[in-house]
């Protein structure tokens, strides 16, 4: 049998190969450098960083439906459930020879309790963040490009709000939309006391000072630094962006270089109000410690 890359492996001999791997997670805001980060990490032969992963959804499907099975209701066994979830995670990556797996999903901050039960240790999460206004600007530019020939799902559902730039921003900030849901999960994970498990990587710093940022990330991970080539980052993560609603959503540049902020030009002065959502600019967020949950607020607060 072979995987998607054509690498042959034996289905049975690999079933236990994932047991000795370390699992870390990549999350944060969309349009904030997570794809770039994954491809930089993949230069290190010890690491395997994924494209947008469905593993979390797979685990949640089992967790959420387990107790709907009548026989499991009659003979409850939570330890067995966790062994199954752990086995699924390990088996999914059993064909990878890398020592450390970075599973990328914006959902992980919302389920760190489950993640830690599965991996049996404190989670380590690299959280990519960026000025919310530039995140919204990036989505606005993607929409303008896509609207030439098609309609994205958000426009179909919120047709009237999509008639203005401000309306489109508000839609993307909704709690059930890409920016709002990711933001709220990060905020809530901090409020639940997981700050010491989360290392914040700022998009502007990653693109302007990649070596310093990566050295600090390695320190958080407890790994020996690998000399990355920031002038030649090959795209090793692949996914069909058609299913995400936008073209070229996860395409990176080979050379890591600064990306100028353009939200004022793209969105206009009204977007200044969204700057208050950048809580990571007001708190020492490098390792997430000493975070006062009262200092955080929901993105659903009145804009």
Per DSSP E runs of 2 or more residues, the count of β-strands stands at 5
Q: Structural class, judged by helices and strands?
A: alpha/beta
- Low-pLDDT segments, ≥5 res: 11-15, 293-303
Sheet with most strands: 5 strands, parallel
What is the share of helical residues? 25-40%
- Alpha-carbon Rg, integer: 20 Å
Jot down its keywords:
alpha/beta, 303 residues, 9% strand
Element layout with pairings:
Elements: E1 22-28, H1 34-41, E2 47-52, H2 55-66, H3 70-74, H4 78-92, E3 100-104, H5 112-119, E4 125-129, H6 132-146, H7 153-157, H8 165-172, H9 178-191, E5 198-202, H10 203-208, H11 210-221, H12 263-266
Parallel strand pairs: 1-3, 1-4, 2-3, 4-5
Helix pairs in contact: 2-4, 6-8
Quick recap:
By secondary structure, this protein is an alpha/beta fold. The protein has helices at residues 34-41, 55-66, 70-74, 78-92, 112-119, 132-146, 153-157, 165-172, 178-191, 203-208, 210-221, 263-266, and strands at residues 22-28, 47-52, 100-104, 125-129, 198-202.
Describe the 3D structure:
With 303 residues, the protein is an alpha/beta fold. The chain has a domain at 22-130 and 194-258 and 283-295. The protein is 37% helix and 9% strand. The protein is built from twelve helices and five strands. A five-stranded parallel beta sheet has the order 2-3-1-4-5, with helices on both faces. It is globular, with a radius of gyration of 20 Å. The termini are far apart. The model is unreliable at 11-15 and 293-303 (pLDDT under 50).
């Amino acid at each position: 049998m072979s995987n998607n890359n054509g690498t042959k492996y034996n289905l049975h001999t690999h079933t236990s190969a994932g047991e000795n791997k370390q699992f870390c997670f990549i999350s944060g805001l969309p349009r904030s450098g997570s794809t770039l980060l994954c491809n930089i990490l993949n230069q290190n032969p010890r690491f395997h960083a994924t494209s947008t992963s469905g593993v979390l959804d797979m685990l949640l499907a089992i967790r959420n439906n387990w107790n709907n099975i009548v026989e499991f209701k009659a003979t409850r066994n939570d330890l067995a459930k966790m062994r199954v979830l752990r086995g699924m995670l390990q088996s999914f990556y059993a064909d990878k020879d890398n020592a450390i797996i970075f599973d990328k999903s914006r959902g992980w901050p919302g389920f760190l309790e489950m993640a830690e039960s599965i991996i049996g240790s404190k989670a380590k999460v690299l959280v990519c963040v960026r000025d919310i206004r530039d995140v919204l600007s990036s989505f606005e530019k993607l929409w303008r490009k896509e609207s030439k020939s098609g309609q994205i799902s958000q426009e179909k559902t919120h047709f009237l709000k999509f008639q203005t730039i401000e309306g489109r921003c508000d839609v993307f900030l909704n709690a059930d939309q890409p920016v709002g849901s990711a933001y709220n999960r990060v905020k809530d994970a901090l409020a639940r006391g997981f700050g010491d498990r989360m290392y914040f990587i700022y998009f502007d710093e990653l693109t302007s000072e990649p070596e310093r940022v990566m050295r600090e990330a390695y320190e958080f991970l407890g790994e020996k630094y690998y000399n990355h080539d920031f002038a030649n980052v090959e795209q090793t993560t692949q996914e069909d962006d058609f299913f995400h609603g936008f073209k070229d959503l996860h395409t990176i540049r080979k050379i890591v270089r600064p990306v100028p902020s353009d939200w004022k030009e793209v969105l206009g002065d009204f977007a200044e109000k969204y700057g208050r959502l950048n809580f990571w600019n007001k708190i020492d967020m490098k390792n997430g410690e000493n975070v006062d949950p009262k200092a955080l607020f929901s993105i659903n607060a009145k804009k």
